[in-house]
Amino acid sequence: MSAAPVATGAGAGPEPLARAARLRPGARVAVVSPSGPVPAERLDAGLDLLRGWDLDPFVTPHARDVHPELRYLAGTDEHRAQDLQDAWCDPSVDAILCARGGYGAHRMVDLLDWTAIRAAGPKPFVGYSDITVLHEAFALRAGFSTLLGPMVGAETFLKDAPTQDGLRATLLEPESVRTLGLETAASLVPGRARGVTYGGCVSLLAADLGTPGARTSARGGLLLVEDVTEDPYRIDGILTRLLRSGALEGVAGVVCGSWENCGPYDRVRAVLADRLGTLGVPVVEELGFGHGPTTLTVPLGLPAVLDAPADGGRATLTVEVPALT
User: Fold this and answer.
1) pLDDT band at 213 (very low <50, low <70, confident <90, very high)
2) Is residue 325 assigned to a domain?
3) Is 218 in the same domain as 157?
4) Domain of 68: which CATH number?
5) Mean pLDDT in the chain?
6) What is the C-alpha to C-alpha distance for residues 159 and 293, in angstroms, rounded to an integer?
């Protein structure tokens, strides 16, 4: 049987973003906390895992901080921004990994010197959840591809071997992880589409609407969405806001990850089918990224093909180039 034609969305799609270099043994890796505070024991355990990969991780000066009054923040906005800025612009730092998500990236993203970051060039940058804000900023303000993936102090990274293996392979052997999708990955709306990947935590994408430097078009993009602890009616509201704003016009396809603690999945699935089914593009469910028990590492800002088979077979997302050079 011949392959189905690959849809690319209406009009010209976005250009792929600049890729960073893969890591080599001994690479110096900065661990930052742009959002919420991370428990010390979890951060230390994550650093040990990275050392086991023959990397040289270090914690930035304020990554262990807790804001003196707003205890849900990992230190002040200025300190969190300074840690990320300094690590990015330090030529001895080969990659930047986030310690955890939480809340706070929206508060510090505009404090970053994006001219200096662009001048420093791309580096592997990894995180998910609240870090979605920074993924969008690196894409739109700097033109850099990033990695939607596990965080150093997250329990999933510490406990789940497939999560660890996926990140390690992406950082060190990126050509080995071009096709992504857990056994759960299935077609919600069948079809095949090609586009440039973007997205992350869907509530953060909706919160970004109308802010400085925010994305204004999905044309030619493959949208990745997931979330945690959002009731089905709230997911409905978030997706409806994206639809009403026009933010999803021209999207080539949609890839759904995990919906951890968002209620019974059949209710979540009904919302996804109702809201995303109106787009007339392929939609895949449960690919395996985000807050679930396994967190795949998915490159953002790169061309990929989404395959949502109509025969009930496993759905996949295949990146056309390795995540890192």
Assistant:
1) confident
2) no
3) no
4) 3.40.50.10740
5) 95
6) 9
Locate 175 and state its tokens. Answer: 């050509």
Three-state secondary structure along 272-310? HHHHHHHHCCCEEECCCCCCCCCCCCEEECCEEEEEECC
Unique residue bearing structure tokens 């994006």: 114
Distance of CA 189 to the CA centre of its chain: 22
In-domain check, residue 56: yes
Residue 11 structure tokens? 């009009």
Whole domain around residue 307: which residue ranges?
177-319
Return the bridge partners of 179, or none.
Answer: 318
The two structure tokens encoding residue 32? 């930052």
Q: Are residues 167 and 195 in the same domain?
A: no
Pair type for strands 28-32 and 56-59: parallel
Mean pLDDT, rounded, for 105-114: 97
Which pTM was predicted?
0.94
For residue 90 the two structure tokens come to 């330090």
pLDDT digits (tens, 9 = 90+) for 160-204: 999 999 999 999 999 999 999 999 999 999 999 999 999 999 999
Question: What is the rounded average pLDDT of the residues 309-318?
Answer: 94
More confident residue, 209 or 5: 209
> Are 133 and 21 a contacting pair, CB within 8 Å?
no
As to burial, measured by CB atoms within 10 angstroms (0-12 exposed, 13-18 middle, 19+ buried), residue 115 is: exposed
List, by residue number, the catalytic residues: 129, 226, 291
